[in-house]
Amino acid sequence: METGSGEAEFKEAKSLQEERRVPEAERLFRVAAEAGHVGAMLKLGVLVVERDEGEAERWWRAAADAGDRVGQFNLGILCSDQGRDEEAESWYRKAAEAGEVDARHNLGLLLIGRRDVQGASEQFRIAAEAGRTDSMTNLGLALGEMGRTDESEEWLRRAAEKGDGRALSSLANHLYSQGRREEADEWWEKGATAGDPDSLFNLGVRCEHKNDMAGAEEYFRRAGQAGHPRGAARAAAVARGIRENGAPYMPGLF
Predict the structure, then answer these.
(1) What DSSP designation does 244 have?
(2) Is residue 216 a contact partner of residue 240, using CB atoms and an 8 Å limit?
(3) Do the domain assignments include residue 23?
(4) Which of 16, 111, 151, 187 is the most buried if burial means most Cβ atoms within 10 Å?
């Protein structure tokens, strides 16, 4: 815990924020931040970012320059949101090196955007080994892109067993591509139960393969309601008697 300049104002501001007296809390966070209190800089940045990204950046930069990893991470997010990817990468790396696991994950996403699968996998692995579930999923997908199928399945399974919807469908996709279709169906069922749109859609495809058109229409409809981009159209097509009998929907890492 920080002590010294601004600490009293910081504590009072936190109490006011808990009481939802936000304007009063902001005023005291500002007093503490101007006195050099890093925690207050972070809090103040969060309070003002929606109305003034420039001010939020100033406070997070002050915290980051003081060596605070959360300030560095927040700056990385802000820069990324603004399309300043090189600066975002720099701040993510600083935060990651300081031990911020979420920065590892975001850095991996940034590298994936550049098609640097190897670099991304290294970042996802660190976050995955620290227990971040969506990093496990992304690591599994990255390893699959690199042709390391056994290790890919291992990480996808670990994430799926933790209930990650994307991992549930991705593991099923992996199993289906290897001809392990009954096992794939089991994981798509689990994904559907969790509300995963890709799992719902692919169960619709599987019903279509089995001539269960009523089941196909129902799964496609539910996939559309869950946000799948093709779900509603496929449900409507099946209702009109149009069938595709295509392959399951298998989005990759990119």
Answers:
(1) -
(2) no
(3) yes
(4) 187
Residues in the chain: 254
Domain that holds residue 128: 100-148
Report the C-alpha gap between 177 and 60 in whole angstroms: 46
pLDDT in tens, 112-158: 999 999 999 999 999 999 999 999 999 999 999 999 999 999 999 99
* Structural contact between residues 142 and 134, judged by C-beta atoms closer than 8 angstroms: no
In the chain, how many domains are there? Answer: 2
Q: Are residues 69 and 10 in the same domain?
A: yes
Tokens of 48: 């003002």
**Distance between CA 66 and CA 71 in Å, rounded?**
9
Q: Are 84 and 110 in contact (CB under 8 A)?
A: no
The answer to whether residue 198 sits within a structural domain is no
Judge contact between 208 and 220, C-beta under 8 A: no
